[in-house]
Specification:
This protein is of the alpha/beta class. It has helices spanning about 60-65, 95-115, 125-130, 135-140, 145-170, 170-185, 205, 210-220, 230-240, 250-260, 310-315, 325-345, 390-400, 415-430, 440-445, 450-460, 465-475, 485-495, 535-555, 575-580, 605-610, 625-635, 655-665, 690-695, and strands spanning about 280, 285-290, 305-310, 315-320, 350-355, 370, 380, 510-515, 525-530, 560-565, 590-595, 615-620, 635-650, 670-685, 700-705, 710-720. The strands form three sheets. Strands 1, 2, 3, 4, 5, 6, 9, 10, 11, 12, 15 and 16 form a twelve-stranded mixed sheet that branches. A two-stranded parallel ribbon has the order 7-8. InterPro entries: P-loop_NTPase.
Length: about 725
């Protein structure tokens, strides 16, 4: 059956990618010596799971995770067990003033009661008792009755005085702030929801008539056989059934037969070997930090978890910070790990690009690992992106080779380079039914008479008149001023090195990976040869970016979220890349890019890049020049400015001096006459100086925009929490 997005990721090219097949549930290993559950004599007992596999989660822990509340929240808030806060910050009385006021209120109440009790204020306060009660009750000879009436009345009066002075002295706030936290008991676990609303019983399946499937899943969840990835994967498959892309009968049969193992990922994996961040598969969020309790953050965000998910990454993310600021370990790797989990759940496809050894996770986390320039690499990289259209292949390859040389003005393009390549790729593919390899393409771009003559002869023998005209046009441009062929030849020569001799093969002898596989929930990591081949690495990074944006926009099934993670985007931002990134939002795709500084982007492209990206992150250690660009894109806001003028009051009489001393004891400040002027001013949300010098180490300032257009202002986030 179609497992809803978990189509076979092996069909990434003409040569399938081999993946190990998972053993069927309940299968017994050969020669295990187990026939009726009793081990054979002399053999150790059969292990409960495969060596190195993560232990199964406890059923109660999984059910607690599944039933935890996840209320709707503002963009970026970690929704797991989130407790919403008020939008406005309540007024908080300073501690010294609060305790002094409470003590003085108590003393005033005690003084009033003492004056009443000792008769200094007269006997008027017992008049209500004498008016409303008969004399036989008040002046009875029964001592017990008299005591009950009079002392009950005294208690009522004392209680009224206590309520009045408690209101004035804010005793309730003193209790909530200083006493209640120490008396608070551990919260009891919430009772399970009613059966018709319990997610562990899969009510959506029961409503559709799949009672047997729901019972099997509920039993596996209670027995601890289900993981969060299993739940997300089966929920994704059920949405495919509801959308009409998969038959209900096949889904039900698979779930009843396999339980939590149903609808597997093509790799057979049900989880990652280890997790470095906190993930919530129910909301597809990954927690990357905690919003700081800072006055510059909106009150609703302060102290809440900060999380990212496809609804935010769909607008793309740009993180800028110097080396050592935590871009890879605290931002890139958690996001890549979350997307890998999403791929195992059948709802995401991820391509991670970075230098070899950059800390982007172990190879076991990925289905395909392309180690460009490494002789032991099992997979190759398709230079032409898996397309058979010469014009499309030429456009992508031209962007990779000379995209950084194009006029950085947003209107600049590489059409002349694209035309040059198309004039060679089209005739070559018409004859050989494939595109040229790197050495062959270099020879054609150099204009060598031998390769061009052989190509012309083959075209004449095949009767390809249209392709001959293309080749004639290329030969006429050779040697002319402004011919892009020489520059293209110099750039392709960077890939025509002995270290890359076994890569970019077009003859079918290798196993190339193509980004056309984004229709499948595939996990891919591309290791670039940064050491010794920096220029070639930048060309390959631009190539993967160009192929990703081209492939993501033409996918037939856009239900999978496709994401490209560039650990270092230096040299990859071109005018065409900025335009293509803007169009990814409507294709359910996004790009995560990091830069050490915005100086790695041409000046005319910085503003368009920051405008095309929806989520922008400035990490600690930013330069003031980079901070200025972020300050401009985040804009200004209207805020209330208070100008306070204090004039100290000088007391001249003994009574005045006593009152002033009392005020100093209560408030901690000298008595002043204050004049306050309130006005509305417009100021930057975060200034360049604050971004450069006011962001603590391990922190970042992050603004968010989701695919629906909801916006979160710049937030100071602690990435270490």
């Amino acid at each position: 059956m179609d497992s809803d997005g978990t189509h076979d990721a092996r069909g990434t090219h003409a040569t399938p990618v081999p993946r190990p097949a998972a053993p069927p549930p309940g299968a017994v290993a050969p020669h295990s010596g187990q026939h009726s559950g009793v081990p054979a004599p002399g053999l150790p007992p059969r292990p409960a799971g495969a060596p190195g596999a993560p232990p199964l989660p406890d059923g109660a822990a999984f059910l607690g995770w599944l039933r935890a509340p996840r209320p709707a929240a503002l963009p970026g808030i970690w929704r797991f067990a989130h407790k919403p806060r008020p939008a406005q910050e309540p007024e908080v009385v300073p501690t010294r003033q609060l305790l002094s006021g409470a003590l003085i209120a108590f003393l005033v109440g005690w003084l009033v009661w003492s004056l009443l009790w000792n008769g200094y204020l007269g006997g008027w306060w017992v008049l209500p008792l004498e008016l409303f009660l008969p004399d036989s009750w008040i002046y009875a000879h029964d001592e017990l009755g008299n005591a009950f009436v009079w002392y009950g009345y005294y208690t009522l009066i004392a209680f009224g005085i206590m309520i009045a002075v408690g209101k004035i002295g804010r005793w309730g706030e003193v209790w909530r702030r200083f006493v209640a936290p120490h008396l608070r008991r551990r919260e009891a676990p919430a009772p399970p929801p009613p059966p018709e609303e319990d997610p562990a019983r899969w009510p959506q399946l029961r409503a559709a008539g799949a009672e047997a499937a729901a019972d099997r899943l509920a039993a596996d969840a209670g027995a601890g056989l289900m993981r969060d990835v299993d739940h997300a994967r089966i929920a994704r498959a059920w949405r495919s059934v509801r959308a009409g892309r998969s038959p209900l009968a096949a889904f039900t049969d698979a779930v009843v037969r396999d339980g939590a193992r149903a609808c597997p990922h093509p790799s057979g994996d049900r989880d990652l070997p280890a997790r470095a961040a906190r993930h919530d598969l129910a909301t597809a969020q990954v927690r990357i930090g905690t919003t700081a309790d800072d006055p510059r953050n909106p009150y609703a965000y302060r102290g809440t978890g900060l999380a990212l998910g496809p609804e935010l990454l769909g607008t793309s993310l740009l993180a800028v910070g110097p080396g050592g600021s935590g871009k890879t370990a605290r931002v890139v790797w958690p996001i890549a790990e979350s997307l890998c989990l999403g791929a195992l759940a059948g709802r995401a496809a991820v391509v991670v690009v970075g230098a070899a050894g950059a800390g982007l996770g172990p190879a076991e986390d990925y289905d395909v690992v392309v180690r460009v320039g490494h002789p032991d690499s099992e997979y190759d990289l398709d230079l032409y992106g898996g397309t058979t259209d010469p014009d499309e292949a030429a456009a992508v390859l031209a962007e990779a080779l000379v995209g950084d040389l194009v006029d950085p003005h947003p209107s600049g393009d590489s059409r002349r380079s694209t035309t040059c390549l198309a004039q060679l790729l089209g005739p070559y593919s018409a004859v050989h039914r494939r595109f040229p390899s790197v050495p062959e393409l270099r020879a054609l771009l150099d204009g060598s008479p031998g390769p061009l003559g052989a190509l012309r002869k083959a075209l004449q023998e095949a009767g390809q008149e249209a392709m001959i005209r293309e080749l004639d046009a290329r030969e006429r441009q050779l040697g002319h001023p402004g011919d892009p062929g020489a520059v293209l030849a110099d750039r392709i020569a960077l890939l025509d090195r002995p270290a890359f001799a076994a890569f970019f093969d077009t003859t079918g002898r290798s196993t190339p990976f193509s980004l056309r596989a984004l229709d499948h929930p595939v996990r891919v990591r591309v290791d670039l040869p940064e050491r010794g081949h920096a220029d070639a690495s930048r060309i390959l990074a631009r190539l993967v970016l160009a192929q990703f944006t081209a492939s993501a926009a033409v996918r037939e099934d856009r239900s999978l979220f496709a994401c490209l993670v560039l650990d270092d985007a230096s040299g990859t931002v071109t005018p065409e890349a900025v335009r293509r990134v803007q169009r990814l939002r409507s294709a359910n795709a996004g790009v995560v890019m990091t830069l050490r500084t915005l100086d790695d982007v041409p000046r005319p492209l910085r503003t368009p890049l920051l405008g095309a990206i929806g989520c922008r992150m400035a990490l600690s250690g930013l330069t003031p020049w980079d901070g200025q660009d972020f300050a401009e894109v985040w804009g200004k806001e209207w805020t209330e400015a208070r100008d306070v003028t204090d004039r100290q009051i000088i007391a001249e009489t003994p009574l005045g001096k006593t009152v002033h001393m009392l005020r100093r004891v209560i408030t901690g400040n000298a008595p002043t006459a204050r004049a306050v002027t309130v006005r509305q001013v417009e100021r930057e949300r975060w200034s360049a100086s604050e971004l450069a010098h006011g962001v603590p180490p391990g922190h970042a300032v992050l603004s968010l925009t989701d695919v629906r257009g909801e916006y979160a202002p710049p937030l100071l986030v602690d990435l270490r929490a």
